[in-house]
Amino acid sequence: MYYIKKYSNCWAIHNDDNGQSRELTAVEVETVANELLALNDANTLTVYADRISSIQGKP
Q: Which tens digit of pLDDT belongs to each residue from 19-38?
């Protein structure tokens, strides 16, 4: 499972299976926000997904 977490200084993708994570680029933030619409809500801090097709090279 993957999750996108909004931090004060960035958004990051986390791979819950292997514990790896990385900061998203500005382009990835825009792309993933289009795929996972809940991320557009300012009150949403984390979104979980089994698959995120808009991001290449997931951790």
A: 999 999 999 999 999 999 99
